[in-house]
Design a protein that fits this description.
The structure is a single chain. This protein folds into two domains: 113 residues, Four Helix Bundle (Hemerythrin (Met), subunit A); 197 residues, Translation initiation factor eif-2b, domain 2 (Rossmann fold, 3-Layer(aba) Sandwich), CATH 3.40.50.10470. It has ten helices and 16 strands. It is 36% helix and 17% strand. The protein is an alpha/beta fold and 349 residues long. The N terminus is likely disordered. It starts with 27 loop residues before the first strand and ends with a strand.
Length: 349
Amino acid sequence: MDASAGMDPSAGMDATAGMDASAGPRTIDWDAGAIVTVDQVALPHEHRMLRLGTVDQLIDAIQRLAIRGAPALGAAGALGVALSAHLHADDPEAVRIDADRIAAARPTAANLAWGVQRVLDRLPEGADAVLAEARAVLAEDERANREASRRAAELVLELCSRRPLRVLTHCNTGRLATVAWGTALGAVRHLAAAGQLDYVLADETRPLLQGARLTAYELAEAGIRYRVCPDSAAATAMAQGLVDCVLVGADRIAANGDVANKIGTFPVALAAARHGIPFVVVAPESTLDLSLPDGSGIVIEHRDPAEVTHFDGQPVTPAGAGAFNPAFDVTPADLITAIVTETRIYRAP
């Protein structure tokens, strides 16, 4: 991606200035020796908090998606190492073993291993230093996502002439996927607060329905008008002129601008390119993986076939059916209009 074109974040209109700065409660935090987090599996029907006092409990919460979303995983990685450092204050090797286990819990999101490594570097200074660094990660995530989403909202207003805007999203990129504010859905909140948003089409995001369950929950909570859209109907919505812009997040971004995100993002980008609709990725700098020249090196997590062959615990396929169930796909850089972080905007050449 071209990081030199249009890089000045202060250029153009500041249509989001002075908007509501309330981020709401944190999705994940530290409390008296334990990690506390929203159980995202229980939503939207029940808002339940988990209290995780062991590394095994944290890894289980990550793998069953009670904690999910790249920035939230970065926070979880940092807090997990802090938890281990307090549990094994006199055994740094045990902490390093736990750190490796946490980082490997989900392989695609760059932020998880990034959060682990950042606080692990403080381990020689003791458990309190590790915790202090983890708390800094949380605070910085709030600031980074707020700034990235503000820049993205301004960019969308520059790219799209229609008012108010109709935005399509894929997966969940709000406060539940971060520490408190949100990336792509944070930009939606900026646009709504500025009176520039008509509605959101929230892709349901099969097979685990993060859009239908979580994005719809957050939009309803914020009082933002929305409709849930079957993934397979997104292209039709674009063809019928119902979408002005696509806003998505990212789990890992390669050096050339290829983006790994929730499965189904690639076909949304293809449809947006076909219809000349801006496709904007919003993510913190911690999601960048400049060690990978392109997206071919991104490890894609494959999940339990039962997520596809069953629905709500009941089989929907013949007995013994297999399933292709990648959790993520890679969108090539040439389909992406811009990638927006807290410090810069990458535009397609």
